[in-house]
Batch of 2 targets.
Target 1
Amino acid sequence: MATIEIAKRAATRPTWAEVSLSTLKQNYRALTQYLGRGVNVCAVVKADAYGHGAVECAAALEQEGATWLGVTSLDEAIPLREEGIITRILLMTGFWRGEEEEIIRLRLTPTVWEVGQIELLDRASARLGVSQHAIHLKVDTGMGRLGAAPQDLPRICAVLKSSSHLKLEGFSTHIASSEVLDAPSVADQLKLFERARLTLREHGFDPPVVHSANTSAVISHHESWHSMVRPGLALYGYHLPFERAGRTVSGRALRLAVTPVLTWKTQILSLRDMPAGQAVGYGGTFVTKAPTRIAILPVGYADGLNRELSSKGRVIVREHYAPIVGRISMDLTTADVTGIPGVEVADEVILLGSQDGLTVDAREHAELAHTIPYEILCAISKRVPRKYHP
């Protein structure tokens, strides 16, 4: 019969994420130093700062000198303003009809690409007695999502000229394949962007804030920097793998040294000593081949631990790697801690992070789950409390 050891008491469910705000600031400084003078940083804190906590991260970035923050929409900007963030905030995916007055009141900078958006903002600014409210115009150069078609720019410029309460401060686009070093589409997009800028100049507009680069473009395509860049993932310590001719290029990003900001931890809930031939977890997909000690961890896919890591991922326990075995379930995960000396209930377990030279990071999780680090970080759910370290 298996012997079972169970934790006697836990004040709270012991699964949490630790966010180092000093590391976030360090990454921001690394970015600004890498870019040099003349290139501003719009620090992207959308999607709750990629799962790190938008309010806390925005405050830290503001303290570090960030003059721009990027969010998806009005609902992400409101909590920042409510918590006293005064830094410029760029709404990167526009706005919905009916939000325009709140955007003006909160001094937010919306991205626009349609005539109707410009007209709504101009009327709202007039009603509120605001002149020269700043907007950024986005052009679609090949991403195929948001942005004005280049052929629509003359009409948009005409509407902007008649809008007495708005100021065209910024011009932007988005690069579709910036992590592919030899993608011809990158050069094509940048050429189209330059032609679009020329169209604006021909119609009397020359916005000073020009931006197209995300994290990958910041690292791999210096020609895309312009006067501002929009890094997100790099702030939190990661970048996408780079490719050339369909193959991964190693070491390319080492010129920009950033460190993961978030460490995800749990504790051992229970230990079970199992005989050979014992199935573990849903479907019995893992069967012990010898006497095995299994640690049950109070974390699962409801917390954001990707189910694709089942019998593929690993955790760190007492300065050793321990493989995840069996299927990850909604609330529990099992790991093989056989042979790790001194393992006890309530021992700390690192799901994402480093300890004494051992590392499990979001890039590793992404590779095993056939996804990207963005999704791994954003998926860490709200039921995982964040603990912030200065």
Target 2
Amino acid sequence: MKNLTLCLASLFFAASAVTANDSIVIDIKPGKWKHEYSMTSESGSFEQAMDEVRKQLNALPESQRRMVEDMMAQQGINLDMQGATLEMCITAEEIRQGMWTQEDGCTQTMTEGEGETFHVRFSCDSNPPTSGEGTFRIHDPTRYSALVNVTTEFNGQPETLVMEQKGTWLQAECDG
């Protein structure tokens, strides 16, 4: 379960972390954001593994299950049957620099498309190596959406994941 959760989190960060070139301005509000995402795999293996994690979590005694859920919630992570959410703070400085939660070992680039749509490409020297590309669209300063194709390995086999993501600004203040 731990490895699967770490894989899920690293894919999220890789897809949401972008490095803008000097000419790109990301017009979003700084503060606390809720990121919602769902993933589907080409083979169905990822979904089967997530179902197994959920079954194992549900099979725990209630006190242990709550403890695991509370630990994940303290990190801003909520897994349910439809997808996952993560709450995190994005500072004005990170927006100004064009960098969001850059994961160690990852490189990300973003190029401008039409309107408020950007093309995102990333590569991570993770275990397993993970890369991908997709589109990132800013609807207004408080909402965005993304669609990213991710190439990785799952259970030792090459896998392609499609990740849909949306972000919603919650508030200006970030809780500790």
